[in-house]
Amino acid sequence: MYLAVKHFNFLLQGRDFTIMTDHKPLCYSFNMSYDRHSPREARQLDYISQFTTDIQFIKGHTNVVADALSRKDINMTVLNQDIKLETLAKLQADDAELKVCREKSSLNLKSVPIPFSDASIICDTSTGNNRPFVPQACRLKLFQHLHGLSHPGIRATTKLMTERSVWPKISSDIKRWTRGCLQCQRSKIQKHTISPIGKFPIPDRRFQHIHLELVGPLPSSNSFTHILTAIDRFTRWAIACPIKDTSAETVASVFLDRWISHYGVPTTITTDRGPQFQSILFQEFTRLLGVKHIRTTVYHPAANGMVERFHRQLKSSLMAQTDSTNWSDALPLVLLGIRATVKEDIGCTPAELVYGTTLTLPGQLVNCEPTTQEDATHFASCLLQVMQNIRAIPPREYNNPVHLDKHLETCKFVFVRVDAVKKPLTPPYEGPYKVIKRTCKYFIINKNGNNETISIDRIKPAFYEPPQATDDNTANKQSLPSFAKKQEEEEKLSTTPSCLTRSGRLIKKPKRYVHFMD
After folding, report:
1. Final residue before a domain boundary, out of 24, 42, 68
2. 248-252, 255-259, 351-355, 506-510: segment of lowest average pLDDT
3. Which end of the chain has fewer CB atoms < 10 Å from its terminal CB, N or C?
4. DSSP H helical segments within 94-187, as ranges?
5. Where are the extended beta strands (E) located within 302-441?
6. CB 44: neighbour CB atoms within 10 A?
7. Which range among 90-99, 283-292, 304-313, 479-488 shows the weakest confidence by mean pLDDT?
8. Which stretches make up the Integrase catalytic domain (predicted)?
9. d(CA 252, CA 258)
10. pLDDT, tens digit, for every residue of 431-466?
């Protein structure tokens, strides 16, 4: 009461008004001695008395105005889906399926009177319960009302509805509608899509195909906070260059200085979709070098798995150092150990494939290489001949489980798994989005008007059950879902003739005016 008067004081000043409350003891507050009030209550009553002392009692069930502010909003969409028994009785009278069921069905259909009404409805009593026969026009509404309570699965929804209603082929209808519930598809995870592991083309020579990636941010060490890493698919030779920032200029400069100047220009570079690698500078950099740039799909590090696996080994080696905070000083010796370690999949060390000999490590007591008195020319020719005969070994294959939904081959819309950090109660999937192109490893979808490439491992097919026709003339047209309408509007906008300014800028008309451009 005190807070209400204080909040509306600019409206109450100079006015005669009455305070209505359903807390009866407050009505006698001004008639009681101030000694019976606490100092806080006395101050508040003193403030209220500056405006009015007229406090009257009102019963709680009639205090609807104030009560409405403390009650949750009623979901009117659910209440509107309730089916009145009188309406159901009228629809049963004209239902053709009910007449057929009375003649040929094994159901025990009887007329049951409606309480407090002269009408009656047809119910099945074969199970001991009165199960009303639901006409065609009310089935989807009844399903949406019962299934929308907690969105159970197919079996639970079937049991929930068959105990309370009946109609021909009720189980198949419920299965189809439950599978097509968009809220369930966004919020539930049955089984993630797991596609077979893809294979890169085997490189023909060394330093032909490399993987590029960034590590960090790491604890600052000599002002370095990130590491630029690169690894060759043929030799498994890797570099790790500490950098102070991750700008596209820094990445391109370090890559040119630490890789290209030592090992030449590669044919193919695989990176993720970081802003450094998608920048105009890096794209122009790869174009000038004549390098094919492959970008992985978002939230799918397995597509760049060779360098990601190298990161695991690199980080564990740095963490094992005595002073892991000074990682930039320990990095050169860690790389030396990694390059001199035998790789199980290729059966030799990366250094042997690059230099044709083993590396001498710190603390090595005996030189493992035999001493020979051959000139440099003969050694170079022999080494060149051996290196030319080396063939790349493909990575090891693993028998990982594979799960591909058969509907991925034909679905028009898909849901995309959200792999980013989510807030509580956030649906694990978003969408649906329209499919533009599909391959064995990725889909191209239309997301918010833009075409995006998404890994098939983050996708599941979207099912949609169109509403059934009713007696209304407008209901005979099967309307598209809201997401399909949005996609059509975006496609319509994208197909409008594009205009360019004199500077070459593309004029994009605002989407909110798409309806006024017809």
Report:
1. 68
2. 506-510
3. C
4. 96-104, 136-147, 154-162, 170-179, 182-187
5. 413-417, 429-438
6. 18
7. 479-488
8. 197-370
9. 10
10. 888 888 888 888 888 888 888 888 888 888 888 755
